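Fold this complex.
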Amino acid sequence: MFVGSQVLGVYVYGLFFQYTAIEVLNYASVFLGAIVYAIVLGKFLRANRAVTG
Amino acid sequence: MPCFIIPQYGNIATCQNRKAGQVRDRGKGTSVKLSIKFHPLLFQSSLAAGGVALMAFNYLQFSIPHGKGLITFSNISWSTLTPGQIALYAPLVAVLFAFTVLNLGLTAYFLYRLVLWLREPGAYRGFRDNPQQNQNAGIFAIVASLSMTINVVWAPLGFFVPQVSSNVQALMLSSLVAFLILFSVLMFLQVTFGRTWFSPGVERRNFNFVWLLDAFAFGLLSLTGSGIVTMAGSETIRTIAAIATLFTLVVGSLLLIYKMAFLIYSHLRAAKLPAASILPAFFLIVPIACLYGLSAYRVAEYLQPHLASAPHGSESLLITAAYVLAVAWALGAIYLVRDYLRSHFVKSQFAPSQWGFV
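Structure:
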């Protein structure tokens, strides 16, 4: 859920508020982003396979 | 025939008709497997991959002490790291590598498909002249994705390729040229496609949040421009980039404010959520808020010495406000589409708007 704001999140963490909670949130969001991407990519490839027949 | 859903087509599926002799992507010996008919929204896959690569890169940039400038692979002294730190950073480097390759590979592939699509008689015109339900707004995904790729070349690619990281200054002029080309293309598309949305007979009350893709493209272009402002050594390059970025920020912000107000009003009036395949587009506001906040922060930092009246600390206020807006909107959007996330997302068919989650 915080994935999209992560790129900005590290700036907030790195420049202004060095809270562990923000650091953990930023770290987790990288992998959450990667997982969501993998799910969507899987759907995309399945749709593509279906088109290919 | 199996299809995939283009939500902007009002859930009309788009299929590749193999017998119709449409574009085939087959090389000699190795066949390219992607047979889905080209649509500009497919550029969202490379865009999202670039986003994930930048996430991992930024985390490393701010977490690991290194010399001045952007962090590179050789800046990390793995032998001195504790096992805990290695367990923390190694997966990030793996994600960074995978998504950098994905971004560059998909960009090259879809650029090739784009050229073929533009050469198809009537394809572009037919796409442009179809503004109902903002179906043609997907064109802006191309500019957005290419802007992202410039950022991927500077940072994630530079992380792995020393020749890139050590020559970032040499890349600045070509980056500025690429930025200005994308800037011109975006302006052209904005005027051309913007006209279609306000032509007679278009039911704007049926527009959805995918309509914000142009504001998103302005945000990504601002990120690129502000990146040049931050990194370039040449004062001339910085000034040109700063002026152009200020322009994209102002135009993009105006577009965003108008469209957000319109969409929120029309969605409230409709008193029901749009079709499931369009729901992920609610999340578009999140990266847009971040991009504008970050770009404005960088430009304000550059302009502050020139503006005697600029309040001290205004940059931190900009960036924090954008972050708060992004997080608040993300939470609100999750609440709105909670049923979709719980029971529909994993099982549903592919829809390009799903890249919006990333």
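Residues 127 and 272 of chain B are 28 Å apart (CA to CA).
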